[in-house]
Specification:
The chain folds into 2 domains: 271 residues, Aldehyde Dehydrogenase, Chain A, domain 1, CATH 3.40.605; 185 residues, Aldehyde Dehydrogenase, Chain A, domain 2. The protein is built from 15 helices and 20 strands. A 7-stranded mixed sheet has the order 14-15-16-13-12-17-18, with helices on both faces. Helix 2 packs antiparallel against helix 4 and helix 2 crosses helix 6. With 476 residues, the chain is of the alpha/beta class. 54% of the residues are buried. The structure holds NADP nicotinamide-adenine-dinucleotide phosphate. NADP nicotinamide-adenine-dinucleotide phosphate binds next to helix 7 and helix 8.
């Protein structure tokens, strides 16, 4: 069912589509397959609700968000179990994600109260200036499958705090997580039309309605750079505000003064986060020649210990990939790299024995002797393959790290403060972890530069994405 104007309704097409467990192939359930007509109805509901929602006090909006946070935390275990069955990540990671998703509700419940403008002195004695912030209007969100709950709240919480109403189209692989997330908003008592959900297998048709409908003033998208560019082009016709959180190709640099064992631990954790299916996963691991042997041995040993399987089972640390398309990409990246001289120190193949044959599992893999000619050096892998490149000096590695069209996350390991600061200043990435594999939080701005996106999510910057600034001049 779609959630439109405060009610669960069937799609206008009368059709449904299935959601499957990527670990077992089993059908988990079916959801309504919405079309442009449903998106239109959802936008109309959001428009009807906007007048009253945008004029509620920030204290009222904050109270709704606190309530949603409380309900989500109460449901944490159920939501996490659903996420593991629908998306595949190990249960412990799903619990973490639900916590992260709830963090956005809490943080923006608090920040809603700080939508401050300013007073600005004028050069004229008889003039005063002030700035004020007002909600941009109706926001439309398109979200990915890899973080199927937190990518909703990272958009919905600031939009609602700002006073916007919203329509969400989630990824077709994880619609059940979206439905359960909306039940949280429903129970929190948000007025009809303030939050609307259109599940659909027809992304293009829904996006077209979002882009061409004049009532939508803001599009927020998380997904691939390729689709992000289409959204940017489409939004240009009406100059709608956009936020784009897109792909990444993170460098992970281990300098000669770093502890290779500690760095290898960090690399294995962040590279295999969500089985490599996170936009902040390293895609090129650069290690200084003087410590390369030690680092590669430790990384390989840690990766060999990863336990692929059904994320609901105890001890599983690597879930399945989302679908066959992802499996094909892994095979292509590995065979291209091997053909051009890379060495596989562990993994490098699809897991086909039972119980893996029912799902989409790829063995956690480490590649060494990786060079810039290889596909994996350029393309986002989005899977459990760690490519290692040896370097000799700082200048060269900074150039190599920046040699990508992407600019989302980056990591460096060093015990030299001057080097850490200098390199952080020179890396062309929106997020930099210094000996830190999780430089993210609801309280800090998340986003990329170059072809990794436009705008920021989380933090005050994330709230400003849903607000228009006005200047008011007073002649006395
Ligand atoms: P995707 O194919 O771009 O899909 C993302 C969303 O866009 C889905 O809801 C999808 O719907 C929809 N979509 C697909 N084609 C569309 C089109 N032509 N017009 C409008 N919407 C369309 O990306 P994905 O493979 O699901 O997600 C992985 C990508 O997301 C990776 O590149 C990853 O780095 C990026 N990501 C970025 C961040 C970040 O914050 N920067 C966070 C997470 C993921 P369907 O599901 O129906 O195809």
């Amino acid at each position: 069912m779609l959630f439109i104007n405060g009610s669960w309704v069937p799609a206008s097409t009368g059709q449904m589509f299935e959601s499957r467990n990527p670990a077992t192939g089993e059908v988990l359930g079916s959801v309504a397959d919405g079309d442009a007509e449903d998106a239109r109805a959802a936008i109309a509901a959001a428009r009807a609700a906007f007048g009253s929602w945008s004029t509620t006090t920030v204290y009222q909006r904050s109270a709704f968000l606190y309530e949603a946070w409380r309900i989500m935390m109460d449901r944490r275990e159920d939501l996490a179990r659903l996420m593991t069955t629908e998306q595949g990540k190990p249960l412990r990671m799903s619990r973490n994600e639900v916590g992260y998703a709830a963090d956005f509700l809490l943080w923006f419940a608090e920040e809603a109260k700080r939508i401050y403008g300013a007073t600005i002195p004028s050069a004229r004695a008889d003039q005063r200036f002030m700035t004020m912030y007002q909600p941009v209007g109706i926001a439309a969100a398109i979200t990915p499958w890899n973080y199927p709950i937190s990518m909703l709240t990272r958009k919905m919480a600031p939009a609602l705090a700002a006073g916007c109403t919203i329509v969400v189209k989630p990824a077709k692989q994880t619609p059940l997580c979206a439905v359960e997330t909306f039940k949280v908003f429903e129970e929190a008592g948000f007025p009809a039309g303030v939050v609307n959900l259109v599940t659909s297998s027809r992304a293009r048709a829904i996006a077209h309605e979002f882009l061409t409908n004049r009532d939508v003033r803001k599009i927020t998208f998380t997904g691939s750079t390729e689709v992000g560019k289409e959204i940017a082009e489409g939004a240009a016709a009406q100059l709608k505000r956009i936020s784009l959180e897109l792909g990444g190709h993170a460098p992970f640099i281990v300098f000669e003064d770093a502890d290779p064992v500690h760095a290898a631990r960090g690399a294995s954790l962040v590279k295999f986060l969500n089985t490599g299916q996170a936009c902040i996963c390293p895609n090129r691991i650069f290690v200084h020649r003087s410590i390369a042997d030690r680092f590669i041995a430790e990384l390989t040993a840690r990766v060999e210990k990863l336990q692929p399987g059904n994320g609901l089972d105890d001890g599983v640390t690597a879930g399945p990939l989302i679908d066959e398309g992802a499996m094909e990409k892994m095979a292509a990246h590995v065979s291209d790299a091997k053909g051009k001289g890379a060495t596989v120190t562990t993994g490098g193949y699809r897991l086909t024995d039972p119980p893996f044959d029912a799902g989409t599992f790829y063995a956690p893999t480490v590649l060494t002797d990786v060079t810039p000619e290889m596909l994996i050096y350029r393309e986002e892998t989005f899977g459990p393959i760690a490519p290692v490149i040896v370097f000799d000096d700082d200048e060269a590695v900074i150039d190599m790290a920046n040699d990508t069209t992407y600019g989302l996350a980056s990591y460096l390991y060093t015990n030299n403060l001057k080097r850490a600061m200098t390199v952080a200043e020179r890396l062309d990435f929106g997020i930099i972890g210094v000996n830190d594999i999780n430089p993210t939080s609801a309280a800090v701005p998340f986003g990329g530069i170059k072809e990794s996106g436009v705008g920021r999510e989380g933090a005050r910057e994330g709230l400003l994405e849903y607000l228009d600034q006005k200047v008011v001049g007073f002649a006395l």
